[in-house]
From TrEMBL:
It comes from Micromonospora deserti. It holds the Pfam family FMN_red. Coiled coil: none annotated. This is NADPH-dependent FMN reductase. Residues 11-161 form the NADPH-dependent FMN reductase-like domain. GO terms for molecular function: FMN binding; oxidoreductase activity. GO terms for cellular component: cytosol.
């Protein structure tokens, strides 16, 4: 069976992990989407990007009586969320660092599901005062538990060096600044996206190889 000619594009969900009004996450995700749209695999139709904004999903705090690993969902919002994640082969998680970890909204969204994350590929794009590296470290551990494979290249955006606050009042805590990614950021993100496409393609090929040939 030739799977390469008929394969649908590798669907990469760009998960926007912060939800607060005025968040910088929107700018980081927009930049990631722009960089992704320039990737050879995306231009060739081998991969596609789907923005999954947790602010739009507006999931409540986990309200399923049965843990997700049993896969029996009671609530329509869980079934919708499940279908959205199930439809993806891979993810880029755009996460800020909140108190040395990921936002509660992102942890909650991951906790809602289980099998939908299993065997998927993930890339980490973090941001924070120091690049959000502690959030990324936590996210790596969480994704290991739901059996998602995190690619080695990681992208860190610093609020201090990758945002421009020219014209903002230095005492204004709501000033979002303007994202101006520093040298090498786009290259790192491109490398991460290329790894995601390669790994997701390899996993898909392995799965296809394991499936028995149709009889007759
Ligand atoms: C609740 C909260 C906790 C934060 N804790 C940290 C932190 O531990 N380390 C850090 O580098 N930045 C921290 N920050 C700064 C955020 O990384 C920065 O404000 C970032 O823009 C937040 O993402 P958002 O704008 O998408 O919400 C924190 C911000 C918030 C709102």
């Amino acid at each position: 069976m030739n799977t390469t000619q008929t394969a649908r594009p590798i669907r990469i969900g760009l998960v926007v992990g912060s939800t607060r009004p005025g968040r910088r996450g929107s700018a980081v995700a927009r930049w990631a989407q722009q960089v992704a749209s320039r990737q050879p695999a995306v231009r060739a139709g081998v991969a596609e990007i789907a923005v999954i904004d947790l602010a739009e999903q507006a999931l409540p705090l986990l309200d399923e009586p049965v843990p997700a690993m049993f896969g029996t969902y009671r609530n329509p919002h869980t079934r919708r969320w499940s279908a959205m994640i199930d439809a993806c082969d891979a993810f880029v998680f755009v996460t800020p660092e909140y108190n040395h970890s990921i936002p509660a909204a992102l942890k909650n969204a991951i906790d809602f599901l289980s099998a939908e994350w299993n065997g998927k590929v993930a890339g980490l794009l973090s941001y924070g005062v120091q690049g959000g590296s502690r959030a990324a470290d936590h996210l790596r551990l969480i994704l290991a538990e739901v059996r998602a494979a995190v690619v080695p290249t990681q992208v860190s955006i610093s609020i201090f060096t990758d945002f421009d606050f020219t014209g903002s009042d230095s005492g204004d805590p709501t000033a979002p600044g303007m994202l101006v990614p520093g040298e090498g950021r786009e290259e790192s993100l491109s490398t991460m996206l290329a790894e995601i496409v390669t790994w997701a393609g390899a996993l898909r090929a392995a799965e296809a190889g394991l499936r028995p040939e149709p009889v007759g």
